[in-house]
Specification:
heterodimer, A: mainly alpha, 13 helices, 84% helix, globular, B: alpha/beta, 4-stranded antiparallel sheet
């Protein structure tokens, strides 16, 4: 028991735990769409594309989340713009923007004095550095994103499963797709501090992919995914505390372990 | 929707992707309750026409009028049964989830399925003879059962116009008969059905009207009017073989040259 409670005597651990659980759940829920719509590459790209926004905010000593948010929304909408009407294929547009934004971000960060430390925090997260105003911001943004997903559950289901039905139902498919991109971008922004941009993509894909193996309806898939996301965050954070490893890595590796178990279980079950 | 089913008019419609025009200057009218077969060689623009009728592919020129008003004015009066290749069968939804989607148009954006919605879904599933399968994932069904699930969805939509893209290709005899049973049922409700098919015998024997196209209108009318030697020759060109006793064969063995569209 002491083993579990001891880390929580530190306030930064409490905040870190809250933040990672919220982010774990959020990423896992949005990740359901990422997995089902084949947007894994997009999620990865989005995560790296916010780097210049973060760097600029850092240089101007503004709020990192705000900088990241602005960058993410710009990137999400420009991917939509470049790939509209099929001028450039979507994955090509993503590839170009992803590389450009990442380079710009690294260029900006490399001009800073404390380059190495800052870059590693941005890339891999620094969950123990979450202060209480960060935590509030993470909580409020996450709540809003999840609320939006709940409100548009039916619409997102239709545009993901059957775009033609969406057209016959006269749903504003383009608007809904853009909304989903913006939600995805905001999710990445929120996860910046706990798992960092490099590992946010993993938290978007791994829990949802695990849940996909275990369920056969969308809502259960989301809930199982959220549970795995939350558990990975908690276990990962304890591992990080006791093994003295970067928390982003332990969280993602825990999620990966869940995936491997689910994968093996499924294989064994299908052979019976 | 309480207004009575009316008719569908396509006026001088040109349809295409980007710079390419797949279908040029197409005009035809379908009276309400009619059953129309859309026939033509591979790549003739059948799926393209359907995409335009559904509203996912905007017209380059001309217009589509439903019940005297342009396409899109009416919400949810067109139901579409997609080709099997166009559906992601690994998506985590059950048969009843799929059928319930047919009710979303009438449900309102933020409301939950009502008792009526659930009842309509149950009845539609029952009518397609797949009640036992209602809680299975769509990926677990056979091809014919999958098609029946989508037919049940179209039924739950309570459409005025039903569009089906190649529903008779690669399905078992039961599904084919269930499909025609559904079409008979819909005809009583004066629902117009527009169906593309490769099967010219079915088109000739079980449809009121035939629309023969090959990037443009070749002929439109009753099967007898449409299936003449001249019309078939101008639609199918070299793949038409006329025998001495007047029998005609359409040979479409070989995969089409994919020069016109993606996905057509």
């Amino acid at each position: 028991m002491n083993f579990l409670l001891e880390p929580l005597t530190y306030q930064f651990m409490q905040r870190g735990l809250f933040a990672s659980v919220i982010v774990g759940v959020l990423c896992a829920v949005m990740g359901t769409y990422v997995v089902l719509r084949g947007m894994a590459f997009l999620g990865d790209a989005m995560a790296h594309a916010i780097l210049p926004g973060v760097a600029i905010a850092y240089l101007l000593q503004g709020n990192l989340l705000v900088g990241a948010g602005v960058a993410a929304v710009i990137v999400a909408l420009s991917i939509g713009l470049f790939s509209r009407e099929g001028v450039v294929k979507e994955d090509t547009a993503i590839g170009i923007l992803f590389a450009a934004a990442l380079s710009l971000g690294v260029a900006l960060i490399s001009s800073m004095q404390t380059y190495a430390v800052d870059l590693s925090h941005i890339l891999f997260g620094n969950v123990l550095g979450v202060n209480s105003s960060d935590l509030w911001m993470i909580a409020i943004l996450s709540f809003m994103i999840l609320l939006t997903v709940g409100l548009f559950f039916k619409q997102f289901l239709v545009i993901s499963f059957d775009p033609v039905l969406a057209a016959t139902l006269r749903l504003p498919a383009e608007l809904l797709r853009n909304l989903m991109l913006v939600l995805l971008a905001l999710t990445v922004v929120v996860s910046l501090q706990t798992v960092g941009v490099s590992l946010a993509a993993a938290m978007l894909v791994t829990p949802a992919a695990t849940a996909y193996l275990l369920t056969r309806r969308l809502l259960p898939m989301m809930l199982v995914s959220a549970l795995i996301g939350a558990l990975s965050s908690v276990i990962g954070l304890y591992l990080s505390y006791y093994l003295n490893i970067v928390s982003g890595s332990t969280i993602v590796l825990t999620a990966t372990a869940f995936f491997l178990f689910a994968f093996l279980w499924k294989r064994i079950k299908s052979k019976q | 929707m309480t207004h009575t089913p009316h008719r569908l008019e396509v006026e001088n419609a040109s349809i295409g992707y980007g710079e390419k025009i797949i279908m040029r200057d197409l005009s035809f009218q379908v009276p309400h309750g009619a059953r129309v077969a859309v026939v033509g060689p591979n790549g003739a623009g059948k799926s393209t026409l359907f995409k335009a009728l559904v509203g996912i592919l905007p017209l380059k020129s001309g217009q589509i009028i439903i019940h005297g008003e342009s396409l899109g004015t009416h919400k949810d009066c067109v139901a579409y049964v997609p080709q099997r290749e166009d559906v992601d069968w690994r998506f985590p939804v059950t048969v009843s989830d799929v059928v319930m989607m047919g009710r979303f148009g009438q449900m309102g954006w933020w409301s939950q399925p009502s008792k009526t919605d659930k009842q309509i879904v149950r009845k539609s599933i029952e009518q397609m003879g797949i009640t036992d399968l209602a809680d299975l994932s769509i990926g677990q069904l056979s091809g014919g059962q999958q098609q029946r699930a989508f037919l049940a969805r179209a039924l739950a939509q309570e459409p005025h116009i039903l569009l089906m893209d190649e529903p008779f290709t690669g399905v078992d005899a039961t599904t084919q008969e269930v499909t025609f049973g559904l079409l008979d049922h819909l005809r009583e409700k004066m629902v117009t059905a527009i169906i593309s098919t490769h099967d010219l015998n079915l088109a000739a024997s079980r449809f009121d009207l035939v629309l023969l196209i090959n990037h443009r209108l070749i002929a439109y009318g009753t099967p007898q009017q449409v299936f003449t030697r001249e019309n078939l020759a101008s639609a199918f060109g070299n793949s038409l073989l006329v025998m001495e006793n007047g029998m005609m064969l359409v040979d479409e063995c070989c995969p089409p040259e994919e020069q016109f569209t993606i996905n057509d």
